[in-house]
Amino acid sequence: MQKIGFLATYLKYRDKINPIFNSYSYFEKMYTNPKLTMFWIISNERRVGEIWIATGDDYAKIARIFVLKHWQNQGIAQTAILQVEQIFSSYDTWYLDTIMQEKNNCHLYEKLGYVRTKAEKKINSRMTVIDYEKHLK
């Protein structure tokens, strides 16, 4: 599902860090990592995406999120993020990174209270990754 979910992003940016390059053994390693938790994003009893949460001693990070194209722009990702923030409510500080050129993603995160930091990493001529953070309390 991740390969389907991230294929359009790869085709747009041609980045070598895209999850479509992750092997099944890499996925297994992520899935069994005690500091990572994966949730299926469900809509109308169908798996329509995933959200991965990484945790540290005093923070949580949205490590990866996607919603399959057919179910995008329906508020599904927003609901998923709010739900994981509730599940991991013991963490006051949250982080994520995203592609600067993906304005809809940036809008979503900012709408949910995430604030862009100054950190950015140019991946290639088409793509720059930027960081966000949020303090819940």
What does it look like?
The chain has helices at 2-13, 24-32, 76-87, 103-111, and strands at 36-43, 46-55, 59-67, 93-99, 115-122, 128-135. The chain is of the alpha+beta class and 137 residues long. It is globular, with a radius of gyration of 15 Å. The chain has a 6-stranded mixed sheet, sandwiched between helices. It contains 4 helices and 6 strands. The mean pLDDT is 95.
Topology readout:
Blueprint: H1 2-13, H2 24-32, E1 36-43, E2 46-55, E3 59-67, H3 76-87, E4 93-99, H4 103-111, E5 115-122, E6 128-135
Parallel strand pairs: 3-4
Antiparallel strand pairs: 1-2, 2-3, 4-6, 5-6
Question: Based on DSSP secondary structure assignment, what is the total number of beta strands?
Answer: 6
Alpha carbon gap, first and last residue? 34 Å
Helix content: 25-40%
Query: In percent, how much strand structure appears in the residues?
Result: 35-45%
Largest sheet: 6 strands, mixed
Spatial extent as radius of gyration: 15 Å
Structural class category? alpha+beta
Question: Residue ranges: pLDDT <50 for 5 or more in a row?
Answer: none
Number of helices: 4
Strand order of the largest sheet: 1-2-3-4-6-5
Order of helices and strands: HHEEEHEHEE
Mean pLDDT across residues: 95
